[in-house]
Amino acid sequence: MTPEPEQSERQHESQHQPESQRQPESQRQPESAGEPEVARHAESMVRRDDKGGFPAQQQDPPGLTSRMHPVPDHGEDTYIGHGRLEGLRALITGGDSGIGRAVAIAFAREGADVAIGYLPDEQSDAEETLGWVERAGRKGVLVPGDLVDRETCRRVVAQAVGGLGGLDILVNNAGYHWDRGGDGIEGLQPEHVERVLRTNLHAVLWLCQAASPHLGTGASIITTTSIQAYDPSPALLDYAATKAALNNLTVNLAAALGPRGIRVNAVAPGPIWTPLQPATRGTDTIETFGADTPLGRAGQPAEVAPAYVFLASPADASYVSGTVLGVTGGKATL
């Protein structure tokens, strides 16, 4: 990601460029105005003490971006597109906030139309993400739904296909975990385990099943897994198990859909500052969140989105399938 020039420099360059050489709308960066505190460089997002995390805070699930302190960086002022997804159509589940919002912004600036899947309780976040997609000059579609059953997954895909006129990219990004109980097997609660399994694993199966008939040669499926698949935390025992299963599913789906020219990959993020963290973690873990990585800090959604762009791009990743790409701050994915 390359930071944009100062405003005066952009205006000067625009005034002296021929129209044919000016940057397409989908590749320009919107101006930020009246936003809450947002650090545009990841290093300035961390606490200036030896903890490496964020100020103590909690929200009720599912969590909202506007209530976070500081608000995550989704690339609003930094991501510059280069037309790598021009004319493609993408459905991003969990696309309202966090990694999903960063991917939606990046995809739109790369030239893709975007359907945003989200929980109904996250309407305000979804509408803000839609605004970023539309400001990039691309079509955006809002598709609400709690992906805990097959019928909802099928409806979300159908509405995305109908709204976009087809589908070329499916990003399975919706996820859930709970880290406010006891550690290990003793801390598991049936209602949380059920939601973790349905949201993280079952939904991916049903979404892929529903999307598959609409995907043609060159299409791409990308699933968000996690560093937890390789380095599980006792407090996230059930979540880590679903992410390990998704790694396996990625390889299996790549083999199953490869003969049709459909690529299937995954991104395994490390600790990333998203609304899921204050909505599901205790305040003590927020204060040290990400400090255990070799880089000593959590990542920002904007630092993960380019991995999805690479995997979705027919030009950049045409021979990449069955791969899990780690974006972990240095933690090993072995």
Word description of this protein:
The protein is of the alpha/beta class and about 325 residues long. It has helices at about 5-15, 100-110, 125-135, 150-165, 190-210, 235-255, 275-280, 285, 300-310; strands at about 90, 115-120, 140-145, 170, 220-225, 265-270, 325. The protein has a single domain, classed as Rossmann fold (3-Layer(aba) Sandwich). A seven-stranded parallel beta sheet has the order 3-2-1-4-5-6-7, sandwiched between helices. The longest helix is centred in the middle third of the chain and has 22 residues, at about 190-210. The model is unreliable at about 1-40 and about 45-50 (pLDDT under 50). GO terms for molecular function: oxidoreductase activity, acting on CH-OH group of donors. Keywords: Oxidoreductase.
Quaternary structure classification:
single chain
CATH superfamily: NAD(P)-binding Rossmann-like Domain
| Helix-and-strand structural type | alpha/beta
Number of strands: 7
Features:
Rossmann fold; single chain; 10% strand; alpha/beta; 7-stranded parallel β-sheet; disordered N terminus; 34% helix; 334 residues
Task: Give a short overview.
The protein is α/β, with parallel strands linked by helices.
Explain the layout of strands and helices:
Blueprint: H1 7-15, E1 89-92, H2 98-109, E2 113-118, H3 123-135, E3 140-144, H4 150-164, E4 169-172, H5 190-211, E5 220-224, H6 237-257, E6 263-269, H7 276-280, H8 283-286, H9 301-312, E7 324-327
Helix pairs in contact: 2-3, 2-9, 4-5, 5-6
